[in-house]
């Protein structure tokens, strides 16, 4: 089985060094999808360290303020992508990688992830869009995420795992998780499963439009307009629901993915 490990929402002064130490000890490469505003702050050196140790650095928006398909006003989604990319430019992959902020509750993949403005920025910038197919909910269940995550990795040909270096509590189980994957014979790689890359180097695939909300001018002009872009996604299209953590309550931690 192939596994791509990804760590989101950093850099974090405790979590990021811990992750880098554990990965380095085992010679495992990973992707770090960093928040732009954090990457220009006091912990920028951690992003540099990750890059220097062979990990891939991707863009996870400037402020992580919500799914881009729900951002208002016009220009906000563009800024979220481009400001973050500028912040990580000296470390960023080529082609650039962008991971959208997952929709509430709990990182759902649907058309709230992007709006048409964001889609145009990604296309014009030649981005590869990085989704996920293993979401263990380390931030919801810091003591219990590892076993179901291992099970999930065994059921997919190529698992793209989302964890959070921004959550040190959940990282206590990272060493055991890594060793379990090694025991399972996992091949760790820095590629993304095809179903997790709806856009490659600016070229949208057939499912890309399913991630994009069209913002109508009259709605975009009215910043008080509530978000109404949520859509029903059939159960089998939502890989997140299979990985929802025990004890999950809708609304919990929805800012974090
Ligand atoms: Zn996130």
Which secondary structure elements does this structure contain, and how are they paired or packed?
Blueprint: E1 2-8, H1 15-26, E2 31-34, H2 36-39, H3 44-52, E3 56-59, H4 76-87, E4 97-98, E5 114-115, H5 116-124, E6 128-129, H6 146-155, E7 158-164, H7 168-171, H8 174-183, E8 187-188, E9 199-200, E10 203-204, E11 212-213, H9 217-220
Parallel strand pairs: 1-2, 1-7, 1-8, 2-3, 4-6, 5-11
Antiparallel strand pairs: 9-10
Helix pairs in contact: 4-5, 6-8
Bound molecules: zinc ion.
Zinc ion (ZN) binds at residues 8-9, 60, 64, 101, 257.
Fold and architecture overview:
The chain has 257 residues and is an alpha/beta fold. It has a single domain (2-256), classed as TIM Barrel, CATH 3.20.20.370. It is 29% helix and 14% strand. Strands 1, 2, 3, 7 and 8 form a five-stranded parallel beta sheet that branches. A hairpin with a 2-residue loop joins β9 and β10 (203-204). The longest helix has 12 residues, at 15-26. It is globular, with a radius of gyration of 17 Å. InterPro entries: Glyco_hydro/deAcase_b/a-brl (IPR011330), NODB_dom (IPR002509), Polysacc_deacetylase_ArnD (IPR050248). Its EC number is 3.-.-.-. Keywords: Hydrolase, Metal-binding. Residues 1-189 form the NodB homology domain. Pfam families: Polysacc_deac_1.
């Amino acid at each position: 089985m192939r596994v791509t490990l990804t760590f989101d929402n950093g850099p974090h002064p405790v979590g990021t060094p811990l992750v880098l130490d554990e990965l380095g000890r085992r010679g495992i490469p990973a992707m770090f999808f960093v928040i732009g505003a954090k990457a220009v702050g006091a912990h920028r050196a951690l992003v540099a360290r990750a890059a220097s140790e062979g990990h891939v650095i991707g863009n996870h928006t400037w402020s992580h303020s919500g799914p881009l398909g729900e951002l208002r006003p016009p220009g906000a989604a563009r800024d979220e992508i481009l400001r973050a990319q500028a912040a990580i430019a000296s470390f960023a992959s080529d082609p650039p990688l962008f991971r959208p902020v997952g929709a509430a509750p709990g990182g759902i993949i649907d058309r709230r992830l992007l709006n048409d403005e964001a889609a145009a920025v990604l296309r014009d910038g030649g981005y590869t869009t990085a989704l996920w197919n293993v979401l263990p909910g380390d931030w919801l269940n810091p003591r219990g995420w590892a076993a179901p995550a291992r099970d999930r990795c065994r059921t997919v040909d190529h698992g793209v795992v989302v964890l959070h270096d921004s959550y040190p509590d959940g990282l206590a189980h990272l060493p055991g998780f890594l060793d379990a994957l090694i025991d399972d014979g996992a091949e760790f790689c820095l590629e993304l499963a095809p179903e997790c890359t709806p856009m490659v180097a600016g070229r949208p695939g057939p499912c890309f439009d399913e991630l994009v909300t069209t913002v109508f001018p009259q709605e975009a002009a009215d910043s008080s307009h509530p978000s109404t872009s949520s859509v029903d996604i059939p159960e089998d299209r939502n890989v997140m629901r299979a990985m929802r953590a025990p004890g999950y309550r809708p609304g919990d931690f929805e800012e974090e993915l």
